[in-house]
Each structure stands twice: as structure tokens, then as C-alpha cells.
Write a structure and sequence with these properties.
The protein has about 325 residues and is mainly alpha-helical. Helix content is about 65%, strand content about 5%. Strands 1-2 form a two-stranded antiparallel sheet.
Length: about 325
């Protein structure tokens, strides 16, 4: 067999080297058509660099606030998600120079690994926040105990994350000329699971909000009393609730988009439309991360982010706050 063959490239007759055919990572845009690349377009340098810088800034802000306020579980969830976003967009910036490099694709591709599983960490941060909101407003109005919400949805999140990561690993069979369809199907299952968890979580939040409104007089008095105990204000409280609503809606939209995208496969229209991706993936996650940074729960709960301490503070009417000194709770 000869080492080359006459083919058509950009509408022009050309000689295609079989070495490149069997090892596309050696290709460039001058020697190979985009159809042999891991993406069917060249990722935007400006757009991906923007999101890279955005998430680096979020990492710095979350580190400063999280360490200062000691909101360790929220800090871990947010940093985990943002670091994965940084790695993913850094790889996409590199792919601007070479869309034929499968290693960068595996790290950054919309379907695979970092940018796929990162929002699971942001969802976990939302669930952690909600358990504190329930405790502050009144656990008697909720369907479950505050910690139960966290356990149920974080475990569900872990399962979704595991499915997406496992599917991403199997989907790398595209490098060997396979469709990676089994991996894609597993990733769809993981993303669908994430959509379902967010939808059910939103319904439980709406149910809790309905009960709070029905018990408006009692719950409002309790909430203001609890906010005073932790040294916060109603404005910060309202801002925190608004930020969580924004985060839930944006991550839900992003997850629905990813399910639709994956259903079309790697070669589908959505999979190769970078503008749509930048809006429904990049921008949605960026807004969610920003909302949970600008209105950080540490500004509301402070050192009472820890559930055990918060329970003591919110359940005891004898807690006194004196110039930021340690809380002392009296028990009969």
C-alpha cells in the first residue's frame, strides 16, 4: 500500500499522508481537514481566555473569603468546581493552537471530564447553603432535617458525577475511531440524573418557601432574631436567597443543554456550535459561580456556618452577642 493517496482538502486536490490518517495528532490545519480533529471548529482564544481569567478570579476570591470566614465545606465545594473550570478552559485555550491534540480534548472537551463534572461541585455548594437556610428559618417547616437535605442531594450529586466521569473515560474511544457511544450514553445518564436532582431540589425549596410564607409572622420573627444572633442583616439574607435562586436556575439550564448536546453525539450540531456552548455552558456556570461569590454565605452566617454551632445558636433564646465574642449558650 502506498503511503499517500489523492484526496480533496478545502475543495482542492491534494496528497493525503496515511501517517496523518492513522495519527491525527500530527495534523495541522494546513495538512488535514477539520473533520479529522477532535473538534469541528477552532476554539475561540478570546472567549476561552476570558472564562479562564474569570474562574481564576473566582478561585482567589473564594479562597480569601472562605478561609477568613471558615466556611470550610462551602469553600471545598466552590474551589473544587472552579479549579476544574480553570483546567478545562486552560486546555481549550491550548486547543486554539492545535485542535488535533486529543490529550487536551480529553481534559477540556464539553463532553469530557473537567468542564462536564465541575458544576456538580457548585450544586453541592447550593445544597450546603440550603440546609443552613432551613435551620435559620425553622426546621419545623421543612420536609426533612437540615442535614438530611445535604446528605440526600450531595450523595445524589456524587452518583451523577461518577457517571459523568466514567462516561467521559469510556467516550475517549473516539481516539481509536470508535463512536464512544457507550460512554456518551453513560454521560447522558449522569447529566440526566443531575437535572432530575436539581428539579426535585427546586420543588422542595418551593415547598419550604410556601410554608414559610404561610407561617409568615412566626418565621419572620424567628429569622430576624436568628440573623441578629449571628450579627447579620435582612438585606444580606435576601441577597443570599436571590443568589441561590440564580445559581440553581443557571446550573439547571446548563445541565439541560448538556443533555441535549450529548444526545446529538460528538459530531452533532450542538456539539460543534461554540457560540451556543459559550452561552449555555460557559456563561451559565460563570454567573452561578459569581452569584455564590459576591453573596457568600460567610457574610450571613460567619463562624456559625458550622451546623452544630448554628443549631445551638438558633435553638437557644439565651445566646448573647457581645462585640463579636464567642457565643455562649445556656441549657436547662
Amino acid at each position: 500500500m502506498s503511503s499517500s493517496q489523492n484526496l480533496t482538502f478545502d475543495g482542492r486536490p491534494t496528497v493525503y499522508n496515511f501517517t496523518l490518517w492513522y495519527n491525527p495528532s500530527l495534523c495541522t490545519l494546513d495538512t488535514c481537514p477539520k473533520s479529522y480533529a477532535v473538534l469541528q471548529y477552532v476554539p475561540s482564544l478570546g472567549g476561552n481566555a476570558f472564562f479562564l481569567t474569570w474562574f481564576i478570579a473566582i478561585v482567589i476570591a473564594q479562597s480569601v473569603i472562605g478561609i477568613y470566614k471558615r466556611t470550610w465545606t462551602f469553600f471545598a465545594a466552590m474551589i473544587g468546581g472552579c479549579v476544574l473550570e480553570v483546567i478545562g478552559y486552560a486546555a481549550r485555550v491550548l486547543m486554539h493552537e492545535n485542535i488535533f491534540n486529543f490529550n487536551w480534548f480529553l481534559i477540556s472537551n464539553r463532553y469530557l471530564i473537567c468542564l462536564t463534572i465541575a458544576p456538580c461541585f457548585f450544586s453541592a455548594a447550593i445544597y450546603l447553603n440550603f440546609s443552613r437556610l432551613v435551620l435559620l428559618h425553622g426546621p419545623h417547616l421543612a420536609r426533612f432535617k437540615p442535614r438530611t437535605y445535604t446528605i440526600i442531594f450531595v450523595v445524589w450529586d456524587i452518583i451523577s458525577l461518577a457517571l459523568q466521569a466514567a462516561g467521559g473515560g469510556l467516550a475517549d474511544t473516539v481516539e481509536d475511531g470508535g463512536s464512544g457511544q457507550t460512554g456518551i450514553n453513560i454521560m447522558i445518564a449522569g447529566l440526566s440524573s443531575q437535572v432530575a436532582s436539581l428539579a426535585i431540589f427546586a420543588m422542595l425549596c418551593a415547598d419550604f418557601a410556601r410554608k414559610v410564607r404561610r407561617d409568615k409572622a412566626g418565621s419572620t420573627a424567628d429569622t430576624h432574631q436568628h440573623l441578629a444572633k449571628v450579627g447579620s442583616s435582612a438585606k444580606w439574607w435576601t441577597a443570599l436567597i436571590s443568589s441561590l435562586i440564580v445559581a440553581v436556575v443557571t446550573i439547571f439550564i446548563r445541565s439541560c443543554f448538556r443533555v441535549a448536546e450529548l444526545n446529538g453525539g460528538f459530531g452533532g450540531r450542538l456539539a460543534n456550535n461554540e457560540v451556543t456552548y459559550m452561552i449555555l455552558e460557559g456563561a451559565m456556570v460563570a454567573v452561578a459561580a459569581l452569584a455564590m461569590t459576591v453573596v457568600h454565605p460567610g457574610f450571613v452566617f460567619g463562624r456559625y456556618w458550622k451546623l452544630k454551632l448554628a443549631k445551638v445558636v438558633f435553638s437557644s433564646p439565651q445566646v448573647e452577642m457581645e462585640n463579636g465574642s464567642d457565643t455562649k449558650a445556656s441549657h436547662p
